[in-house]
Design brief:
Layout: E1 4-5, H1 16-27, H2 38-58, E2 65-68, H3 71-85, E3 92-96, H4 101-111, E4 116-120, H5 130-136, E5 141-145, H6 159-168, E6 172-176, E7 195-199, E8 210-214, H7 229-232, H8 240-278, E9 282-285, E10 295-300, H9 305-314, E11 317-318, H10 334-338, H11 343-346, E12 349-353, H12 360-379, H13 382-389
Parallel strand pairs: 1-11, 3-4, 3-5, 5-6, 6-7
Antiparallel strand pairs: 2-8, 7-8, 9-10, 10-12
Helix pairs in contact: 1-8, 2-8, 3-4, 8-12, 9-12
The structure holds pyridoxal-5'-phosphate.
The site of pyridoxal-5'-phosphate (PLP) has 14 residues, from α3.
Length: about 400
């Protein structure tokens, strides 16, 4: 049976060139980068080399790059480090209703420690409303955290405008750029970000490695303690092979970004066109133009997302109903609900996310499989039979 992977927003396979690059550091070069001797120096050099690659890719200085264990840790560090360091100034945090749970739940946890939180609403495209943000800012606001691109519907937020507003008011601005890395250009100055987070496994590096960018002279403090690594900003022995892999992977995706994003956008549009032609009662979610090139989110009426995923899985198609982190629960996506999509419709969501291994044949296979699957599932829905067929 043909197998097709349409879940690149959940994770990506390691790029073969990335795997090749790190083999020596898994099999032989095992030194601790903090060691004075030659084994330590040999790996320390490669960490600094990776740091330089990362800094070049996002328009930062190498000293502003901190390696972490992934997106979630970077986000926790960004948010907690910012609010703890600015507690003397105020206690108010602003975020949006469509953030990843790593952001939302970190912010919510901080309300238990005396911080107050505003969760901004979004419009029907999942876009943060700038006026609402401007209104939410108070004398007490110390941090704004708004994602660069949404992981469920692909909407790209007006991050530069948000960052500019934050800077004018002297408020730190963090952006979760986990989904945008490698798909759209990222430059920390253009985005006006003080803190920016990415995760290696979303762009063809292994799992368990991430980056936190911290603008120099930002009022930020570490949230863990230990051996002084990463310029005392993230203590603990470095994930040497992960760091080298991330540097290589970021360099690859950024160098191929222009061509690859065009190629993926064409494949995505082919999916959208094919689905709209073949299947009735379907909606395409997210912003019509300000969106990621590799992601499409549908809601199908009269069908459960869970049963749809199960049927696709049986046909060798790996997809998702939204964020992988909430796929275990049958609750409809918090992102779709925040966009005002009715609960019943939000339950029928399907997210397809493309990557470097996808091609036209994959899309044709999907377009062959999906209509009969949908027909079968809807035929079993009493609701569909009553409202549509009669
Ligand atoms: C995957 C993801 C994260 C979490 O990253 P991990 O490295 O898996 O912890 C955070 N934010 C967004 C938008 C994501 O897609």
């Amino acid at each position: 049976m043909k197998k097709v992977y349409f879940d690149h927003s959940a994770t990506t396979p390691v790029h073969p060139l990335v795997a090749e690059e790190i083999i020596p550091y898994i099999t032989g070069k095992f030194g601790n980068p903090s060691s004075i001797h030659f084994l330590g120096r040999e790996v320390k050099k490669e960490i600094e080399n990776a740091r330089e690659k990362v800094s070049r890719c996002i328009g930062a200085y190498p000293e502003e790059i901190v390696f972490t264990s992934g997106g979630t840790e970077s986000i926790n560090m960004a948010i907690k480090g910012a609010v703890y360091a600015n507690r003397w100034k105020g206690n108010h945090i602003i975020t949006s209703a469509v953030e990843h749970h790593a952001v939302l739940d970190t912010c919510k946890a901080l309300t238990e420690e005396g911080f107050t939180l505003t969760v901004l609403p979004v419009d029907r495209y999942g876009m943060v409303i700038l006026d609402a943000l401007a209104e939410a800012i108070t004398e007490q606001t110390i941090l704004i955290s708004i994602m660069h691109a949404n992981n469920e519907v692909g909407t790209i937020q007006p991050v530069s405008d948000i960052g500019r507003l934050a800077r004018e008011k002297g408020i730190l601005f963090h952006t979760d750029a986990v989904q945008s890395m490698g798909k759209i250009p990222i430059n920390v100055d253009d985005l006006q970000a003080d803190l920016l987070t990415v995760s290696g496994h979303k762009f063809y590096a292994p799992k368990g490695i991430g980056v936190l960018y911290i603008r120099q002279d930002s009022n930020w403090q570490p949230v863990n303690h230990g051996g002084g690594q990463e310029r005392r900003r993230r203590h603990g022995t470095e994930n040497v092979s992960g760091i080298i892999a991330l540097g290589k992977a970021m360099e690859l995706v950024v160098s191929e970004l222009k061509d690859e994003s065009q190629r993926l956008a064409r494949l995505r549009d082919k999916i959208i066109k094919g689905v709209l032609e073949r299947i009735p009662y379907v909606h395409v979610n997210g912003h019509p133009t300000k969106r990621l090139p590799n992601l499409v989110n549908f809601t199908f009426e009269y069908v459960e997302g869970e049963s749809l995923l199960f049927s696709l899985d049986m046909a060798g198609i790996a997809a998702s109903s939204g964020s992988a982190c909430t796929a275990d629960s049958v609750d409809p996506s918090h992102v779709l609900l925040a966009m005002g999509i009715p609960t019943e419709i939000a339950r029928g969501s399907l997210r397809l996310t493309l990557g470097r291994d996808n091609n036209d044949e994959d899309i044709e296979y999907l377009l062959d499989v999906l209509p009969p699957v949908m027909g079968r599932l809807r035929a079993m829905s009493p609701f569909f039979n009553e409202t549509v067929i009669r």
